[in-house]
Amino acid sequence: MRDLSLVLTLCLAITPALSAQTRAIRSVSALGADAALAAARAEAGKRSWTMSIAIVDPAGDLLAFHRLDGASPASIQNALGKARTAARFRRATQAYDSLIASGRAGLLNFENMTPLEGGVPIVVDGVVVGGIGVSGGTSAEDAVVAKAGAAAVKP
Asked: Which of 35, 47, 108, 110 lies most in the core, judged by the most C-beta atoms within 10 Å?
């Protein structure tokens, strides 16, 4: 019995040290990705805009995608790039679009960055859990649809 007590005591002492070496990553779920995609599609449809919409996890990996009828084939990769940029860099792609327009062309050297308006991080309780990217309209139109999709994701 004393040996069991010793083993349990050691396990409890080691547990905090091990947990400090890992962290929990929050990510938008499949249900959340579906909600974002549905809200973005509804916003685009309401305005008769034809677009591609991509939802990614915090690492930028694709969770959901939809290309509306009539959307340009070129919008596919742009939507995915905007979503990845918003998730990985944890801010709206409009910020990078503005910086480049003001002369910060060096940002174009960042690998896997799409610095065009229309990508928005999906934030829940202050944590970036994914990103949404939209392409096919003007930059401002893309951003309107992306914001509607991001707002649909709830805790």
From this structure: 35
